Amino acid sequence: AVADLVGQVRDEVEAVERPSINYALRLAVLGAPFSGKTTTAQELAREFKLRLLEPEALAAEALEAAAEYKATVAAAAAAAAAAQPGPALESVAEGPEMAEVAEEGEVVEAGEGAEAEATSTAEGAEAAQGGVEGGEAAPAVASHAEAVPEGQSRKAALGLQIQESLTNGEDISDQVMVNLVILAMEEAGTLAPPKTEEPPHAGEAGSVARSVTSMTATHPVEPEPSQGFILDGFPRSVAQAQLMESILTGLDLAEEQSRVDAASRLAPPPAEALPDLSRPLRSALDAVIALDLSDETIALKRALGRRLDPETARVYHLEFDPPPADEPGLVARLKELEDPANDAVQIQRRLTGYGSQAAALESWLKRFDQVHRPLDGEKPLADVLATASECASCILGAANAAGESRSHAEAAAKGQRSAEGAQEFAELARGYAESAARELLAAKRAELAAQALLLDPKTKNPDPAATEVLKAQAAAKCTEQLKACKQAAADAANYAERAAFYTEQANEALQRALQCLAEAETSLAAQKDARSAAADAAAAHKAAAAATARSVVAREAADVAVVQAEKVLEAEAVSPEEVLELAPPAPDPASEAAAAAAAEAAVDAAIAKAVPMPKPISTSLLKEWRIIEAAYMEGLGMELSALSEERDVTYSHFEGMRVAFKSLLARPDESPAIVTQFQRDFNGVEDDTRQMAETKGELLLRAEELREQLWEVCDKKLEVAEAERKRLNSDTYVADHTALVVHCFSGLLQVELDRFASSINLSRSYVQAKYGILSEPKPEDEIIVPNALTGEVPADVKDKVEEKSKTVMQFPPQFAALQPKAPALTTSLKVAVAIAANVKARLDPSVEDPKAKKAAAKPPAKGKDAVEPAVPPVIEEAMAKELLELGAREADILEQRALLLAERAAAAIQEVASTAERTDVQIGLWIKSRFELECSAVAALDGIVKEAAFAGRPLAHDILLQNSQVIVDQTTMHVPAPAELPPTQARETTPPAGLASISQLARLVQRLVAVAPQGYIKLAEASELLCKATADGSLPESWAGTTNVAMLSMLRLYDSILSGYIDWREVVCNLLAASVPEVMQADCCVMAQQAGILAAVDADGDGFLSLEEWDKAELWFQLKQFQPGVSDADLEVEFAEVDPEAIKPKYDRTSAMKKVLWMMFNSGALPEDSPSAIVAKALPDKSPRLDYRAVLLYLSADRDFCRAVQKACSLLAVSPSLQARVSPEQVFRMAHPLGSQGGVSINRTPLDLETVTSVSKAIAATRGGDAKAPTMCAEEMLYYSAGAPLVKSILPLYHWKDGFAATRLL
């Protein structure tokens, strides 16, 4: 009912005639500027005979049509003015209308008119370009065929709107542009006629060309029909695409979303009544070919390499479409295109404007099934055209398959009609056969009757002559009827065979339609049409098969009639009661359906006569329902919120009770003071007397007294805890909050009862309004809503609720389970169920109502008092039927909700009681456990004291008895033990001035990891952090006094691309290399060997080391030959046997440096999206990992820039050669050792992998190498001009900077 009201109230959308674009191919080509979309569209239009629709050209044509229309109007006005007398002509010429025409330049000389028209056309094309790219919002209602003045074409009207936009300095609106494109779609049934332009040649050839042109103009060529259209670069925004689909297909997702949002939550409509917003959409276009061009350098090449041949107007491209070399003079006369859009800045602007809308447009197109067809626009043109042609061919094939499928469906329908016709003739033949058999039986009976009449009354013998004549006549008639019967049977068999033949034809058509359905899968529109045709063919085949079956039944019945006729003919005598044993008549599905529907005919007729509900009434009813729904949802929300809040309060209460009881059990007592005083007295005994037996006995006796005294303390605490537990159990919290929970559920029940009563009243009003019966509500129809909070029982349901009543209802067992916990709520639930039962019984006409029965027993009024029934019985029955359906549904909902409330209320009450019970049990366990632990602690203390008493020694350490623990404080002793000398710690030597120690760098790394784990930090923040590190000793004392300006000046050395950020790991590695000079002593061979050593240590070979693997690996600066001042004698001493006690510990600077490197580069110090962090997450133990190649790349920095880049290349190529060659991916890894993901947002990745690849290809082309698999070495990167971007942007990482010296320059 609610859905019906919503449908009636919703504004009726006026039926809009959709444009007819039923073509075989409906394509569009989109893509970035210079992606090749225009060339692709032109080639597809030429190959498949499509009308090419270019928005700019369409706008120019519309402007021309507008100019022609204005010229026609002006000419008509001038002719009308010329027809008047002289003075009138002058007055008209000087009037405002002609002045306006003159101002607009429409009545001008030929040369000026042409120039003005060309200017207007050019401006229109430019505005079309701007309007298309602008992407204005589409209006809510789209109409493509607006009313135009008489004599004005739609194209001219659109041209006038375009001209108005140009006059106002605005872009063409999306509405106008889409209407213009759709108009061109409707006119795309024929190809555009070829333009007959005169070639720019002089002389004889020119005269011939002009003669041919004149002949063509004299004899116009018939336009060639097209197979459809193709859009070039349209639509270019989501707004245009949505507007175009709205006009062509009526798609309006905003309106569908509003319908879904407006649907009732309380009475949701059926799923089929609401649109499926997640469905695949169907477009008016067959395919949108999207050319992807992500490389802007290719776009620039395609744009800037175009050249124009001024003689032929042919445009060539120097690289992709070069001019033929065999045509002399062609290359010399080529000129650059004089197009402002050819400027590099304009190209970049167009690319940026396209990119801002491309993603949204692509997402919109992907919502349509099988429409978005992406192609790689960076591939060669031939490959792109071949792929696009294949796509169009598939769509065209699918459309043809859909057409064939429809023709096969029509063939199947024809077979169905033929089979049904044959079936009808077969049944007629059956009827003829059975009729002939009956006629034969009648003739036989007539013969016997005639013979009885011919008997002589005296002799009782028939007249022989008369008998012979009678037999001859009867035999002839019977033979004739038998022949007719056999002929009818033969006809029935023939028609049955024909029906089978036609059914087989329908089956073959069905199989062909199914085959065409499989061939139409490449196009959604074709697939839908083919599926519909296949369904029609299947239905036709099914009907034909049914007709064939009935034909066979008719043939068999005709055969039975022939057998019966022959039997009658051969019989000597036939009794008057004899009946032919014919086949039973075939069942007629139509008659069976009619018989089944006859019982409901009256009610259906009444429903069909339901008057349309006036819109004010339906609006009022829907508004009333909205109020009911809002009140229900508000009440439901309030009660559920209160119930949830009550649940939280209950949990918080018992949690607070447990916390408070824990505090009670852990409260301090006098036990520590008793033990302290006892220890003082125990230790006060003289040492000389402790060994005496009497003293030991006395001390043991004191220990017994101490134990008893402490146990008394434990007993008192147990009594207090049990008393507190009893007090908590005796309070009324559980009962009070159970009552609150019951109150909340009573409120929920009240909300349900109010909704039920309101819904029943609304249903009654709806049914009455639907049938046009508006009457006052009857008193017996009123539903009395009881107060569920008080548990009152209305009088009309008392007999069904009270247990002592004989007519008490059978309630669900859930009510019986709830009765002892919440009797008032249970009574209210029973009342709700009884009210629902009463309403169903009252609305059901089959249930006798005592009041109605009593009223019907009264005799009807007669004479003047007789009143015609207000409502016809049929209408009343229809209303009662529909009201019963609505009321029964609401009553069932109320019963289900009451049952659910009973279950949930019992569970909520039980939850409160269970929580209280669990808390009490937990407290009891705590009390018992605490008492046992305290007693055990006392026993343990007793053992310690008695052991000391037996041994005759004092209690040397302080003893603390803290509740359940005995603590022997060994730090406090009566006789302090001699202190041990601390072990000698290795200390790091102080480095020279300006150099940081390893420990200082470790503290600095800890700070930087905490501030910027991603590695990049702002210059100002880094300067401030280093200044603070200088102040607190994290940097050498010689750095003290460094100003913020000097620190910033030093840090700018690490920001070669002026991004405002630095990589602090590069700074720290430079400081490490200054403090440990052995780092920069490695050459290419050492770095290649080091990469191999670390790869061998890497057990799983993933390029990442664990801490254990990192500690196991030995780096080059740890080797003795790299450490300064080490000779062969020192190496011999290293392996000599010495006394370990005589060796003083020496600070291992290189090992400490390895720890610092682990702190800097392990995955725990890096962002979660770094490669090493991702690898660590994938491990079962989540242990950190270190990317050893990244560490080695950072440590490749050198004073010699070329040497540093050579080391990095040797490291990545694992080659000791100075000319080690690396791929573009390895060069990109050199630029970003830890990955480039962290620097994208802060412009720390100026060159991406594609740019590095293009630079590599340029270097390979310079040296004559393989451009498909380009590689480069360090010298080529540094000294080839093509490698300049690498040197300037990404390789300064490897140039070592002296930070301390840089700070001293200011």
Task: Please describe what this structure looks like.
There is one protein chain. The protein has 1306 residues and is mainly alpha-helical. Helix content is 61%, strand content 5%. The chain contains 44 helices and 14 strands. The strands form five sheets. It has a five-stranded parallel beta sheet with strand order 2-3-1-4-8, with helices on both faces. Strands 6-5-7 form a three-stranded antiparallel beta sheet. Strand 5 (306-308) and strand 6 form a beta hairpin. The longest helix is centred in the C-terminal third of the chain and has 79 residues, at 873-951. It starts with a helix and ends with a helix. 32% of the residues are buried.
Low-pLDDT runs of 5+ residues are 87-142, 194-219, 589-599, 605-610, 851-858, 861-868, 973-979, 1126-1136
* Strand fraction: under 5%
Q: What share of residues is helical?
A: 55-70%
Q: Specify the number of helices.
A: 44
* Form type: flat
Helix/sheet category: mainly alpha
Q: How many DSSP E strands?
A: 14
Separation of the first and last Cα atoms? 86 Å
Radius of gyration: 52 Å
Largest sheet: 5 strands, parallel
